[in-house]
């Protein structure tokens, strides 16, 4: 058997990162994965439906995502030989070891498709924001034309203003390779070939800039005056789109195993998850409440409202260009790395082939989604069909299957038959005994790293507080209940998307 230090060296040689992400880096990475491009639409959600319902949905969804993340962490830690997260076990690797072959292939396909779609969206929106920033600062941006329109034709074109103000792209419906696209590609692609731990500085910078933008806007709205008539307590007419708008922002759960593989041994799993979810939800609520009270009614999003305001501070207008770049650009290399990690860890392909899918493919496909409404359609239906299953249902299924296997191991060790009902205590006993066995795996001929002492003894990872586990209900029963609740949520969000379409 291999010790954790030796395994880490092997992972680095094979194209993975080291276990070196500290607490601050962990919090920033998780927060960035929660804070998505949909943040700028939250004030209009609060204005349309009132503050009570979306606030309740935020609290519910944040708690749900936190519990699914912790259940997934527990499933990873229960994998034999990984009680301290010392082995490389990605989301795909865990699914490969626990699911049947067809279900595993479906899971890895959905995972890669969802991450590629996220990166296409991040690339397109970042490039459009960069072109918009160039228009604001230099009053000009240029592009190579792939497929032009009446306003933009020829091999290349330069513009001094948006060709179509109703379009997200400065070049309207033309398919282009713009200067903004080139800047984003040149700055982010090299980082995508690095490892996750090498990108943490960008996550720290990204969450700092994003938080600064939110608080600058909050100060702007307070200065302009808050109006209670702009945001009622509740408005049922705005309810239909609230759930999907909010839940599609909490897509961090599927990224958690990659973080577990490279977090430092001193980083507490539960604390990092709780703080990250609470802080990200706080930012959402600040945007929703203060934006709902401060923005004019009918504003499509924060950026459009501030750019069109005559009273907005210069720093607030600058923040409208910084926000999408800080919010999305830092996530581009992260999702590319996660795709590569999952493809490699599951043994599907080598590092070089994985980089084609992870790094090159999203940039090529982004060119076809730069113009028109195709990007909105891609994100709408990829989120509706795959988001909830990938980030909520599959983690719970992985935990339940892992629990079943640990229970079978417990019965075999204690000579209990299948009719035994005291499974929960058996699982607890078996995992404690397995911890004692697994602590013997270290090869004494290998040098011990100073941090390795922090792997022992094992920190118990619980999803529910002790008084709940002791007095009310067990974690496995809660997992089954959450799975049923998530299934209802999936059907509800899918119905919302179909109704909206």
Secondary structure: elements and pairs:
Blueprint (H helix, E strand, L loop, with lengths): L3 H10 L9 H12 L7 H8 L2 H26 L13 H8 L2 H38 L2 E7 L8 E4 L15 E4 H14 L7 H25 L17 H6 L8 H7 L6 H26 L7 H6 L6 H16 L1 H15 L5 H16 L7 H41 L8 H16 L27 H6 L3 H26 L1
Antiparallel strand pairs: 1-2, 1-3
Helix pairs in contact: 2-8, 2-11, 3-11, 4-11, 4-16, 5-6, 6-7, 6-13, 6-14, 6-15, 6-16, 7-14, 8-11, 8-13, 14-15, 16-17, 16-19
Describe, in plain words, how this protein is organized in 3D.
- With 501 residues, this protein is an all-alpha fold.
- It is built from 19 helices and three strands.
- Strands 2-1-3 form a three-stranded antiparallel β-sheet.
- Helix 3 crosses helix 11 and helix 4 crosses helix 16.
- The longest helix is centred in the last third of the chain and has 41 residues.
- It is globular and about 70 Å long.
- The N and C termini lie far apart (54 Å).
- The N terminus is likely disordered.
């Amino acid at each position: 058997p291999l010790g954790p230090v030796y395994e880490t060296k092997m992972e680095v040689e094979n194209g993975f990162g080291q276990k070196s992400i500290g607490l601050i880096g962990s919090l920033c990475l998780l927060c960035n994965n929660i804070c998505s491009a949909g943040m700028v639409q939250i004030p209009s959600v609060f204005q349309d439906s009132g503050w009570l319902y979306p606030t309740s949905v935020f609290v519910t969804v944040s708690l749900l995502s936190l519990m699914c993340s912790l259940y997934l962490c527990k499933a990873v830690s229960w994998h034999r030989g990984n009680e301290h997260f010392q082995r490389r076990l990605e989301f795909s690797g865990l699914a490969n070891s626990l699911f049947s072959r067809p279900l595993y292939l479906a899971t890895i396909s959905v995972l890669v498709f969802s991450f590629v779609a996220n990166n296409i969206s991040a690339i397109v929106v970042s490039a459009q924001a960069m072109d918009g920033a160039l228009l604001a600062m230099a009053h000009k941006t240029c592009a190579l034309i792939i497929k032009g329109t009446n306003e933009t034709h020829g091999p290349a074109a330069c513009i001094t203003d948006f060709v179509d103000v109703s379009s997200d792209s400065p070049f309207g419906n033309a398919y282009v390779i713009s200067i903004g696209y080139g800047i984003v590609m040149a700055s982010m692609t090299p980082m995508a070939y690095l490892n996750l731990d090498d990108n943490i500085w960008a996550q720290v910078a990204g969450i700092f800039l994003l938080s600064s933008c939110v608080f600058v806007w909050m100060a702007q709205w307070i200065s302009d005056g808050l109006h209670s008539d702009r945001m009622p307590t509740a408005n049922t007419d705005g309810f239909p789109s609230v759930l999907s708008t909010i839940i599609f922002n909490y897509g961090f759960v599927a990224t958690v195993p990659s973080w577990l593989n490279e977090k430092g041994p001193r980083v507490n799993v539960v604390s990092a998850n709780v703080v990250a979810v609470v802080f990200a939800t706080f930012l959402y609520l600040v945007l929703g409440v203060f934006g709902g009270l401060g923005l004019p009614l009918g504003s499509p999003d924060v950026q459009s409202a501030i750019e069109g305001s005559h009273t907005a501070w210069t720093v607030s207008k600058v923040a409208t260009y910084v926000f999408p770049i800080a919010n999305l650009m830092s996530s581009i290399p992260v999702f590319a790395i996660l795709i590569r990690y999952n493809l490699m860890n599951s043994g599907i392909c080598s590092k070089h082939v994985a980089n084609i899918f992870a790094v090159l493919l999203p940039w090529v496909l982004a060119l076809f989604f730069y113009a028109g409404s195709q990007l909105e359609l891609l994100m709408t239906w990829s989120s509706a069909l795959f988001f909830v299953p990938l980030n909520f249902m599959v983690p719970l299924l992985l935990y339940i299957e892992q629990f079943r296997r640990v229970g079978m191991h417990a019965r075999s060790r204690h000579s209990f038959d299948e009719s035994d009902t005291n499974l929960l205590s058996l699982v607890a006993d078996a995992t404690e005994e397995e911890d004692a066995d697994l602590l013997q795996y270290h090869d004494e001929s290998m040098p011990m790293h100073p941090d390795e002492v922090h792997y022992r003894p094992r920190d118990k990872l619980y999803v529910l507080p002790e008084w709940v586990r002791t007095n009310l209900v067990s974690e496995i029963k809660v997992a089954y209940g959450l799975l049923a609740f998530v299934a209802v949520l999936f059907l509800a969000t899918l119905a919302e998307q179909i109704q909206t379409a």
